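Training component of the fellowship. As part of building independent skills, the fellow (R.M.) carried out the full modelling exercise for a liganded target. The chosen ligand was 5-O-phosphono-beta-D-ribofuranosylamine. The inputs are recorded below so that the supervisory panel can assess the work.
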Amino acid sequence: MIPANHSRPAFPTFPGFFVTGTDTEIGKTTISAALTRLLGQQGWRVVAIKPIAAGLECVEGQWVNDDVQRLRTASPLDVQDHEVGPLQLRHPCAPHIAAKLEGVVIDPQSLLSAIKRTAAKADFSVVEGVGGFCVPLHEPIAAALKAPHPSEQKADSDLETPPHLRGRWDSADLAVDLALPVVLVVGMRLGCINHAVLSAEAIRARGLKLVGWVANHVNPQMGHADDNFATLNQLLGAPCWGRVPFLSEPLPDPITPHLNLAAILKAISAPLPGLPQVPQVPTAATAPSPPPRNIVILISGSGSNMQAIAETAQTAQWAERHGIHIAAVISNRADAAGLQTARNRGLHTEVIPHTQFETRAEFDSALRDCIDRFAPELVVLAGFMRVLTAAFVQHFAGRLINIHPALLPAFPGLNTHQRAIDAGCQFTGATVHEVSVEVDQGRILAQAVVPVLPDDDAGRLAHRVLMAEHRLYPQAVLQKLIQPKNRSQTQLSQR
Ligand code: GRF
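Fellow's submitted model of the complex:
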């Protein structure tokens, strides 16, 4: 590890992350855009910055960089292309080569100033590096090659000249000059373990904190993907912020359900040394208290989806920011393990045992009365293993949702994972839908895609789908409650 350089900031220059990757073309921009979108959805004034972008194309007479466009549109703020991408080079190649071809000298001070100007417009910035972690930003010059490499610096005199003046300024130095915590995107393919471990070592060797990592599946046929993922989880020594399946259209919205919001928020909430805490916007101090809105969650078993919703509600401050309260968790079984989980979280629980009722209609009527006492805006079925009567469904029409472990309309009903494997599906997933009288046929609200791997059995597949459910369901619940009514009506009329 190199000693702190007096010319380098000891503390983060602004609240944000630096996103790096195990290689180029492994989805760094995709994940940066999704992180930006996710934080924006949670109410943060977040901006994405790609300080150096190589490769422009001419669209309607304008030279544009696709990555910069994607990052700009992921941000909730009104920012311009040149603010997101202050240095855009025309040639799609290593930046120092593109710069040389275009007669451009990459000036660290100007670039850092531009980054800070854009970051100043936001509460939080997602700064995307270029290529992998250690990409040269200057053509190596003779004097620089004679100087000790940063990892070999020993004497203070070696540190007197900042790296950019020695011609050694690279993308890792850019991260160091911003002193931001680093997020590593791992392109999941053969060889990624070595690349990821080396990257993590290099990040730490530069004195930076590896705050999280994201597994991004870039090869749908990757062998032993689960084992590779598990190994990375053990070796990287940082929390996993998400496992994103291979997606043919890797846009932010289909990706955000695969990101681990709770882990990300935990990292954001941790105070950054030298900086005021990132504002948890909007807070009670800055916004009037929103009117209370209750949700009721129905479970029959382990209640892991209920737990995921409750955790996200707490971490993302649903009550403070949106007025959303989990008013009750209700089960038809007294022995449902999820009841204890709910109680441990301080949630109110009720049990209406279906066995105590002669008919389905009588049980549903008792359940309806119990739910009505909490005047919920949304009733969330989370592993509630009862077929509901038409009268019950109609009573809660438009405010009753369910999660189903398959990509509806494929595989309604039970035993979905084995059926997906038997049918030779390469992808399955989970669907959040409105509940209609016909089982598993209501309007689709959100889906998460999960690849079916060659060595999957129903159990392994079910586990991965359930992990995806835990990311998908909390976001779908929030979206259902906060999306503008006219948007949902439009979607409804298009179906
Ligand atoms: C999930 O797989 C969900 O899709 C289905 O029931 C299961 C519930 O799991 N409807 P849990 O009780 O939330 O752990």
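The panel noted the following from the submitted structure. The first strand starts at residue 16 and ends at 21. The chain has two domains: 16-147+168-269, 293-493.
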